[in-house]
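Quick start: load a record and inspect it. Here is Cytochrome P450:
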Amino acid sequence: DKTLYAFADQIPGPKAFPIIGSSHKILKKSEEDRFKIVQDMLAKYETNEMTRFWLGPVLFIFINEPKLIQQVLNSNDCLEKSFNYKFLRLDKGLLAAKRETWVDHRKFLEDSFRLDVIKSFISIFVDSSNQLVASLSQTKEQDETKIDIFKLVSRSSLTMVLATSFGINASEVHFDDEILKAVEELIKIISLRCHEPVLYFEPIYRMTRNYYREKKYRKRTTYYLDQVLKERRELISPNNNLTTASSVATMRTDITKDEEMGITVQEIPNISLNSHSFIDHMVMQSGAFNDEEIHDHIYTFVAAGYETVALQTFFTLLLLAIHTDMQERVHCEVVNVGDINCESLDKLNYLDRVIKESMRLLPSVPIVGRETREEVVIGDKKIPKGITLLIHLFNLHRRKDIWGDDAHEFNPDRFLPENVAQRHSHSFLPFSEGLRDCIGKVYAMYAIKTMLVTILRKFKVSTDLKFGELSYKADITLKICQNTKIKIEKR
Ligand code: HEM
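Running the structure step on this input writes:
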């Protein structure tokens, strides 16, 4: 990284727009080191509006300044996703879709995330969180220090996304740990590809071992979803003359355990035709989506929704395990919440601030990428067509000039309304912003709150880890490098 900085300092040109080069050396570094190099580099130029960064032969421009980020996220010419979203192989899904497809589909899919729809999901969130607490309760005393709470939270959040996608109850979703592992591995492989410019070229990538591993893990994850999707599609197809829930009930289909795929799906349960599930919404919009599009959208919801929610819930628990005084304050608030529903969750103001502060310091999506469709003017700079623009949320959320000298400390009161009013609206962007922001943001907040309330009412969490000692790497999502098993005690 010395080479990197020396190079950066020698480049002539306006100071507001430095060029940073990355040599082959940086690509050889560990993922943790690479993330730190980029983070330090951006922090060094944090008062610069933009930073150009070469990764191998590819030029990226980091947009650092909130007012310029706002311009990018609101520009019609920056609605296209950057080239690396293609690596997800979900081209028709909302996250990666080309602008032309995206415009209509986003309009249709907004309906699936309306507040009344999400309200109907809360019972699924509660059931799934209760399952999680039941697993925690079974933990034996001697295991107390060894809880991999992330794994349990991941199971719960995957259950939520699957149940709400397919219109089934949380208790009817069954999957093996193999599925979680497969998704985790897939994310690692795709992230690794993003960091290795030579692998941007598909023919070269196909010669690598990771390509075959990717295929294997993809097959594993799609097997389960494909089965359920096919059955559901047939069941609620407009050509299928089903009109009542009872006639649907006669069409239950059983899928038995498949050892090889590591999946246990006991059955595909009933649905009613006015179910709010994502798949029902799409199939019922007669003609709006073809099979491939439905497939990619559902997979995208699972991919975009499950790990982000799990990570953010886990990060919040970890921060509360480190800051036990704040955990007590959360406990006092949640212990009397009564039945969990949107109204009772909306009253948890302190928990809301704690989650937002966790999203600031540890945003589960650390970097957002866009591509310019035409030449655009951002600030006073012309940016040509076809350039990848990056917004480094992790860094934006820790800028001292925005968040103060204590930017690296956990302080939920930054999100008191009077403090929020002091900052630029685009200083805090865990769900991105503008037309192409996260469609699942309301869903995510209720899912996270439900899990946290259910856990923290019954358990106390603690750890010996110190916040300042944590180091990070950016897969597509943010990861902590340390072993983060935390201690959990019944209250
Ligand atoms: C804490 C949880 C979550 C976080 C932090 C998060 C964050 C984000 C961010 C930053 C984006 C913009 C990505 C970009 O522009 O590259 C995004 C997009 C998206 N998210 Fe989320 N997300 C979360 C949960 C969810 C959930 C639960 C779902 C669905 C069930 C979801 C579905 C999507 C979809 C479909 C998009 C693409 C939207 C579009 O391009 O129109 N997300 N999310």
